[in-house]
Design goal:
Blueprint: E1 2-5, E2 14-16, E3 25-26, E4 39-43, E5 46-48, E6 54-56, H1 61-72, E7 84-86, E8 93-103, E9 113-123, E10 135-140, E11 145-148, E12 151-153, E13 161-166, E14 172-174, E15 177-179, E16 187-190, E17 196-198, E18 201-203, E19 212-215, E20 221-223, E21 226-228, E22 235-237, E23 245-247, E24 250-252, E25 259-262, E26 269-271, E27 274-276, E28 281-287, E29 293-294, E30 297-299, E31 302-304, E32 308-314, E33 323-324, E34 327-329, E35 332-334, E36 339-342, E37 348-349, E38 351-354, E39 357-358, E40 362-363, E41 372-375
Parallel strand pairs: 4-8, 8-9, 9-11, 9-12, 10-13, 11-14, 12-15, 13-16, 14-17, 15-18, 16-19, 17-20, 18-21, 19-22, 20-23, 21-24, 22-25, 23-26, 24-27, 25-28, 26-30, 27-31, 28-32, 29-33, 30-34, 31-35, 32-36, 33-37, 34-38, 35-39, 36-40, 38-41
Antiparallel strand pairs: 1-2, 3-7, 4-5, 5-6
C-alpha cells in the first residue's frame, strides 16, 4: 500500500493499492467452488479432459460459454468475499484457451476466474448482444475476474467494444492486444472499484473514438499500456473517476488528447506517462458539463509533438465548471506546436505548477495567483 499524500484544507489525498492481480488464495473453499475443476484447457476447439481425452466444443463463444464456462465454472457466492485473504495462483479457477475463436455472443467471466488466451478472439459476422454497450468480453458485477493475453479484435462492427468492465471489484485486463472501431471505446471501465488495465496494447486503427474510457469508477489502475491511433482520446478519465492512477502509459497518435481528465474526475494521480504526437493536447484537464475537475496530481509526465503539452481549465459561467486545486510537478514539455503549458484554458482556481520543464512557452498565464501559481526556478 502506498499513501501518496495527506490532505489539509486544500490538498490532495488518497490511498492507492498499486498492485492488483486477480489471482487468489482462500482461507477455506468459497461456496459454489467445491468440486469444480480449478484448471480447464480448450485447445483448437477441443476441451481437454483430465484423462487426456478430448471433446469437440467448437470455435464460437456461444459454445464456449454454454459448454465450458457456465457448467465448469459455476457462480460463486460473492457474499463470502471477506474470506479472500491473499491473491495468488494456488487455488485459482483458470481457463486456458488456445487457438483462434469467433465471438458470436459475449464471453461473461464469473467471479474468481482467469481466462488466459493464447491466440485470438475475433468478432463474428453474426454476433448478437443484448447489452446497451456491446462488447466481446463483458466482465460485469463480478469479483476478482481477469483476462490475460491474446488478441481481441472487434473491428468488424463499430457498435462493439473489445472489452467492457462494469461494476464489481478488482477485475484485471492484462497483456492483451485490443482492436476496435467503436466510437465509445475499445475498452471501457465503468462503476465498481480497483479495476486494472495493464501491459496491453489498444489500437484504434484510426477508427475507434476513445481507446480507453473510465467513468464513475474509483481506484482504477491503468498502467504500462500502449494506447494509440484513436480518433478521440487515448485515455479518458471521465466524470466521477476518482482516487485512480495512470502511470507508465504511452499515449500517441490520437485525434484529440493523449490523456483527458474531465468533468468531475478528482483525486487522481497521473505520473510517468508519455503523450506524443496527438492532434490535441498531450494532457488536458477540463470541466464542461459538470465539475469541478479537482485535486488531481500530475507528476513527471512527458508531452511532446502535440498541439499543446498540458492544458487546464473549464467552461466557467457556473461555480462548478472549472479546474480546481490540481497540481503539476516535474512534467516535461518539448517540441509541441502551440505551447508547452496552457495554464488557464478557461476557468481555473487554485492551480499549482511546480518545477516543470517547458521548452515551448507558457500560455494564458493569469495575473491573479489565486487562480494559478507557477514556480519556475
Amino acid at each position: 500500500m502506498v499513501v501518496l499524500c495527506h490532505r489539509s484544507s486544500r490538498w490532495l489525498s488518497f490511498t492507492l493499492i498499486l498492485n492488483v492481480s486477480v489471482l487468489l488464495t482462500l482461507a477455506s473453499p468459497i461456496s459454489g467452488m467445491e468440486g469444480a475443476p480449478q484448471h480447464v484447457r480448450v485447445q483448437d476447439g477441443f476441451l481437454i479432459h483430465p484423462d487426456g481425452s478430448k471433446s469437440f466444443v467448437g470455435f464460437f463463444t456461444s459454445a464456449l460459454q454454454a459448454q465450458v464456462i457456465a457448467p465448469l465454472f459455476p457462480a460463486v457466492n460473492t457474499t463470502e468475499e471477506s474470506r479472500v485473504s491473499l491473491l495468488n495462483s494456488s487455488t485459482l479457477r483458470t481457463l486456458d484457451l488456445v487457438g483462434n475463436y469467433l465471438s458470436d455472443v459475449p464471453v461473461r467471466p464469473p467471479s474468481f476466474f482467469v481466462l488466459r488466451l493464447d491466440g485470438s478472439l475475433t468478432l463474428a459476422g453474426n454476433a448478437t448482444c443484448p447489452d446497451r454497450y456491446p462488447a466481446m468480453v463483458s466482465i460485469v458485477d463480478v469479483l476478482f475476474s481477469s483476462i490475460v493475453g491474446g488478441l481481441y479484435d472487434a473491428t468488424r462492427n463499430s457498435s462493439y467494444m473489445a472489452v467492457r468492465v462494469q461494476g464489481g471489484r478488482a477485475a484485471s485486463v492484462k497483456n492483451i492486444t485490443a482492436k476496435g472501431a467503436c466510437p465509445i471505446a475499445i475498452i471501457s471501465v465503468t462503476k465498481g472499484s480497483m479495476h486494472e488495465i495493464a501491459g496491453s496494447e489498444l489500437d484504434g486503427g484510426g477508427q475507434a473514438g476513445r481507446c480507453l474510457w473510465t467513468l464513475s469508477t474509483q481506484r482504477a489502475l491503468v498502467h504500462d499500456n500502449h494506447v494509440h491511433n484513436c480518433t478521440g482520446h487515448a485515455l479518458d478519465f471521465d466524470a466521477y473517476t476518482s482516487r485512480s492512477a495512470a502511470w507508465g502509459n504511452l499515449c500517441e497518435d490520437c485525434g484529440f488528447q493523449g490523456i483527458f481528465v474531465e468533468e468531475t474526475a478528482s483525486d487522481n494521480f497521473l505520473f510517468a506517462n508519455t503523450c506524443r504526437n496527438n492532434k490535441g493536447e498531450g494532457i488536458a484537464v477540463y470541466s464542461n458539463a459538470v465539475g469541478p475537475v479537482a485535486r488531481n496530481l500530475f507528476v513527471n509526465n512527458i508531452v511532446t509533438g502535440n498541439s499543446i503539452g498540458i492544458s487546464s481549465g473549464g467552461y466557467g459561467h457556473d461555480p462548478r465548471k472549472h479546474a480546481e486545486d490540481n497540481i503539476y510537478i516535474g512534467n516535461v514539455a518539448l517540441g509541441n506546436n502551440v505551447a508547452g503549458f496552457n495554464v488557464a484554458h478557461g476557468a481555473v482556481e487554485g492551480e499549482t505548477w511546480l518545477d516543470n520543464t517547458n521548452d515551448d512557452g507558457w500560455s494564458n498565464v493569469p495575473s491573479n495567483s489565486s487562480a494559478v501559481t507557477i514556480i519556475d526556478l
